């Protein structure tokens, strides 16, 4: 199984627009380090036979897929409906070309409801344009494109986000972004993952996201082989953060690839 980090930044990306010293606000991130240039979060998980599952459609999806030379996906999953995780949904349209049918899509019940409400044309077609994605709930989903699939809901401040675990044979990759509390269900879902991608907004506590100590706590509780910190804001310099964390914890960057 291969993990590709398409985007590793928070909702505003890094650098953030605007600032005291010009149009780009790098915060504490070194602008000379390419791994500090972060687009909004999204990942791709690739099956050994080549099938690809996309998690979230960030507003930067087009440029992410072009940068990684991805011209096909076989399914898409959403964690929740916040703008930085779904507003690139229209970029799925060219990936529908040449397919016999729509791209299969999945999300938790409430996310399905909200996505249908806002992007109905994607899931039902409109004005002669075909349906781009079929959207189903996770209720009875156990296998998708050769992967075993498991999920749980995670607290995300007053909202919720879906955590996923994709498995093939004895290997597994977990994805836990946008959570603000560690629950027993999360530990059960991600326990023993070969790779776990974890929300890590900043060092200081935040009301809707994991901070560094919480991210490391989840990695430790789940006994994962490797943890990958993502959803990083402009205070999280790549090199500085890398020096702070244990050796099995990696700092995500756009274009990063890992094999489980």
Automatic annotation (TrEMBL):
Chain spans, region Disordered: 1-31
The Metallo-beta-lactamase domain extends over 39-231
Q: Superkingdom, according to UniProt?
A: Bacteria
State the SMART domains in the record: Lactamase_B
Which InterPro entries does the UniProt record give?
A: Metallo-B-lactamas, RibonucZ/Hydroxyglut_hydro
**What is the protein named?**
MBL fold metallo-hydrolase
Organism, as annotated: Novosphingobium album
